[in-house]
Amino acid sequence: MKEMYAIVETGGRQYKVAAGDKVNVEYLAAGEGKEVELSRVLLIADGKDVVIGSPTIDNAKVTATCLNEGKGDKVIVFKYKNKVRYRRKKGHRQLFTTLKINDIVRPGGEVKVKTPRKRKAKVGGED
Fold this sequence. Notes:
The chain is mostly beta strands and 127 residues long. It has strands at 5-10, 13-17, 22-26, 35-38, 41-45, 50-52, 61-81, 86-105, 111-112.
């Protein structure tokens, strides 16, 4: 049986999530350890059926827990015009929120929770 997953939209981006996943999304104003509800669910699929919204699925939601908030890698913005001695250098670090997906609630109200799969042991090398 295939695992259940959903496609949700938050912060102008779409993410494919399943229960138990950790995902970095655009910054949400939730504190660490707080419950977050993502209500813009575009698609829900499991092994046998697929529910597609137009554009979203009514009464469907994905619940998640906020693990932490942080800043991404620095992006350097360098503006330059030749022959006129014009140079501007700026850096930017985008804020993000790490979410742990708890469960996916279908429109009928049923809660489907994925059992954690067993991870294969890593062989050699570093993370």
